[in-house]
């Protein structure tokens, strides 16, 4: 009896591990998608894009909000519903583009609900395109925003040296840096969504083996049955041993085996014609 060997399909193990890893990466992708939307919302509503808090006229700017330091404290002006009437067209365009990025990111989160109703590949494709649009709008908004630094209202805070894409006395604030991180985050999330959509693998069915464990001889195709093989060898046959006795002068009949035969035929020179070759089976 040979030693037992467990045979496992390597493709089954690979498919199972791949599906488990892809699900874990999909969960991380969903978490970072929510974080990306939060980053965009904070950047959109916070007036911390550029500013100068140590100048003669300290203040800071957001997309659609301007805050100035006065004797009574910090006073912020600007409302989201007044964006259309803004005089700074660059800030107005940047607000519209970043707002589009925020709306698209929030809609991408809402599309995740369809994971329970639709195929995951389709949902990943839709979310990937939405994140790509959101990232493109965010990049365009961040690139357009410095174009409005040449406006008079900005020069009152940043100084006369400020101009298009020139800081002057102002510096970048944390909200602008956060928006730039959001641009990079959108590209990474969109790329990951497309990868998860195109490389989706379904879990294969478990293979049905006849025995739970196999022996080495059972996996050899040369063995046809338990007693014979294709090569002509025999594993075990029910053959009794046979003793072959060569003929000779002493090959005579005993008086006990042939009692009715005359004694004359039992001489030493007599041999029966049928006793030339006799096999005695033990």
Low-confidence stretches: 1-8, 226-237, 253-261, 275-282
- Helical proportion, percent range: 40-55%
SSE run: EHEEEEHHHEHEEE
Largest beta-sheet details: 5 strands, antiparallel
User: What is the helix tally?
Assistant: 5
Strand % is 5-15%
What is the structural class? alpha+beta
Spatial strand order of the main sheet = 5-4-3-2-6
* C-alpha-based Rg, rounded: 47 Å
Mean pLDDT: 75
Distance between the termini: 30 Å
Overall 3D form: elongated
Q: What's the number of extended β-strand segments?
A: 9
Question: Describe it for me?
Answer:
With 282 residues, this protein is of the alpha+beta class. The chain is 41% helix and 11% strand. The protein has a five-stranded antiparallel sheet with strand order 5-4-3-2-6. A two-stranded antiparallel sheet has the order 1-7. It has a two-stranded antiparallel ribbon with strand order 8-9. The chain starts with a strand and ends with a strand.
Provide a concise account of the structure shown:
By secondary structure, this protein is an alpha+beta fold.
List the helices and strands and how they pair.
Blueprint: E1 4-5, H1 10-45, E2 50-52, E3 59-61, E4 66-70, E5 73-77, H2 89-111, H3 120-144, H4 152-158, E6 171-172, H5 174-198, E7 214-215, E8 242-245, E9 278-281
Antiparallel strand pairs: 1-7, 2-3, 2-6, 3-4, 4-5, 8-9
């Amino acid at each position: 009896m040979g030693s037992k060997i467990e045979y496992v399909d390597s493709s089954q193990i690979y498919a199972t591990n791949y599906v488990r890893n892809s699900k874990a990466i999909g969960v991380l992708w969903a978490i970072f998608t929510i974080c990306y939307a939060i980053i965009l919302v904070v950047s959109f509503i916070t007036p911390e894009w550029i500013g100068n808090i140590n100048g003669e006229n300290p203040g800071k700017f957001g997309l659609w909000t301007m805050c100035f330091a006065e004797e009574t404290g910090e006073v912020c002006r600007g409302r989201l519903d007044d964006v259309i009437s803004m005089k700074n067209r660059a800030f107005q365009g940047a607000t519209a583009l970043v707002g589009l990025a925020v709306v698209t990111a929030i809609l991408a989160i809402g599309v995740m609900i369809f994971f329970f109703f639709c195929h995951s590949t389709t949902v990943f494709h839709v979310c990937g395109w939405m994140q790509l649009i959101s990232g493109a709008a965010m990049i365009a908004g961040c690139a357009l925003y410095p174009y409005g630094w040449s406006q008079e209202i900005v020069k009152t805070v940043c100084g006369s040296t400020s101009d298009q894409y020139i800081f002057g006395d102002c510096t970048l604030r944390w909200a602008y840096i956060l928006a730039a991180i959001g641009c990079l985050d959108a590209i990474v999330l969109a790329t990951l969504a497309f990868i998860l959509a195109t490389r989706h693998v379904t879990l294969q069915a478990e293979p049905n083996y006849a025995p739970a464990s196999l022996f080495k001889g059972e996996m050899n195709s040369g063995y046809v049955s338990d007693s014979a093989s294709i090569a002509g060898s025999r594993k075990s046959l029910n053959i009794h041993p046979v003793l072959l006795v060569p003929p000779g002068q002493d090959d005579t009949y005993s008086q006990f085996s042939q009692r009715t035969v005359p004694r004359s035929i039992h001489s030493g020179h007599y041999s029966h014609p049928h006793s030339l070759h006799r096999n005695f089976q033990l």
